[in-house]
Amino acid sequence: MRIIIATGNMDKVREINELLEGTEFEAVSMKEAGISVDIDENADSFRGNALIKARAVSKFTDDYVMADDSGLCIDALDGAPGIYSARFCGEDSTYEEKFKKIFEMLEGVPEEKRTAHFTCAVAVVRPDKSEFTVEEYFEGVLHEKPCGENGFGYDPIFYVPEYKMTSAQMSPELKNSMSHRGKALRAMVEKLFEKC
Asked: How far apart are CA 104 and CA 157, in angstroms?
């Protein structure tokens, strides 16, 4: 059975297929499924945005559809950048620009108050148009300078004290075992089989 992922990111599709290995499901991207749709993510939560994307794509298919929305939430900044993580500092800003802005905003905030977490919400619309969501978190602290070559996005400044490294310094296997996306995708796979 196909599960169409509301993304053009093939790395994400590959990651989901690794989790689906040994099941009857195979993940394909929207593009691979021949679906092209402009989606306005205008909800005020990760869960809401994931549902918007999944519902938009599900209008074009009777397959399972999955979408996710994720971002970095910094406690000292009242949860910012949050749902605006990708668009923080403007649509076309680089992550270096985003890091610079965050460090400016956190000036004078001691390290123990620089707590943060990543959030990932996953929404699935089934062929019968019933739906479910799951949401998971990855706790850490903001590092004072970017470190590490793995991962993407905010990973180089997201420090995990327990492992004394940023998530960009972790192996993909270690990161996936504890990350917001890894946990949310595993929870999504479990829920998929509840009604199969």
From this structure: 14
